[in-house]
Automatic annotation (TrEMBL), chains A, B:
GO terms for biological process: nucleoside phosphate metabolic process; ribose phosphate metabolic process. Transmembrane segments: none annotated. GO terms for cellular component: cytosol. Keywords: Hydrolase. Residues 44-175 form the Nudix hydrolase domain. It holds the Pfam family NUDIX. InterPro entries: NUDIX_hydrolase-like_dom_sf, NUDIX_hydrolase_CS, NUDIX_hydrolase_dom. GO terms for molecular function: ADP-sugar diphosphatase activity. This is ADP compounds hydrolase NudE. Gene3D superfamilies: Nucleoside Triphosphate Pyrophosphohydrolase. Its cofactor is Mg(2+).
Length: 189, 189
């Protein structure tokens, strides 16, 4: 078992775009590792703006979730409101905007819970997770094709939420479990 | 707040491949929602085989993690061993193979912890998370460009793991927090 030590990043020998659609670009990267090994990887270029996820708490024991259509899996999935940060938009403003667009509430009290990424082997997709409390009704029009179903869930019944067949997104699961940990020992108050 | 009700999936009006590289294909899907709204989405076609993640427990309080180069973020990331299931391979066999390739151990005792997905809005990427116990040394040669650094972490110090700047992958965080919950009240024993 090695001890942690500084790592030498592989050298990027060449990079080129190998596919592009309207929204997605794929880049091929030729790498030479510090031991001499050479590999060719593909990575998906994101918008670079990052994204936010919001855990809205209606009261001390009630979470709000949404059920929305997901094209990747072609089904409806239960999860927390989320979305991309607009260019120039502050992170927390993006979180409050998504909350109003997707769920019809704004929040007065915000806590930054954690930053996560997704599949760093081929993505560079950062997401900041916020807890939103002291909610009040406020609706903004988003670009959603249909109104989202809003679902209330008691936090103390989180195991039944984990058991829902449509609550499977790793970032929503991480958010739920980090929230539980935070509520046991909040570090900001 | 609506009650949960059966959803009518949008109709897929048209679909076509709009980009393809050596490893990645992007499909455009034209959809008509049940309220008449029309949208065009892009989704990334995966291998369809699914993936596994393994939480190796060296003893009751020691996790094993790996630190490996990630091309998407161009840095080294700390996380649990994981990989794609080979065609025809059973899920748990894939988990035991990845464990041997990446960390040099096999396991006698396996528990299926949870199934997660990743960004279902544009991916169909399923990952099954296993807990591996009763480990014994066994090395298989994988396709890794360099040996992976293996890192031990005490479970009861999980908050310091969450605080590591290179432990940010949502699926590893979900796995860690689900493990804690499982160890508090294991449901298989």
């Amino acid at each position: 078992m090695e001890k942690s030590k500084p790592k030498t990043l592989p050298e990027i020998v060449a990079r080129k775009e190998v596919a592009r659609s309207r929204l997605i670009a794929v880049e091929q990267v030729d790498l030479k590792f510090s031991n001499g090994a050479e590999r060719c990887f593909e990575k998906i270029k994101g918008s670079g703006q990052g994204a936010v996820m919001v855990i809205p708490m209606l009261d001390d024991n009630t979470l709000l979730l949404i059920r929305e259509y997901c094209a990747g899996t072609h089904n409806y999935q239960l999860g927390f409101p989320k979305g991309l940060i607009d260019p120039g938009e502050a992170m927390q403003d993006a979180a409050n905007r998504e909350l109003q667009e997707e769920i019809g509430f704004a929040a007065k009290r915000w806590t930054h819970l954690h930053q996560v990424c997704m599949a760093p082997a081929f993505f560079n997709a950062r997401m900041d997770i916020f807890v939103a409390r002291d909610l009040y009704e406020s609706k903004l029009q988003g670009d959603e094709p249909e109104p989202m179903e809003v679902v209330r869930w008691p936090i103390n019944d989180y195991r039944s939420l984990l058991a829902q067949p449509d609550f499977t997104e790793a970032r929503s699961i991480a958010a739920l479990m980090l929230l539980r940990d935070f509520l046991e020992a909040p570090d900001d108050e």
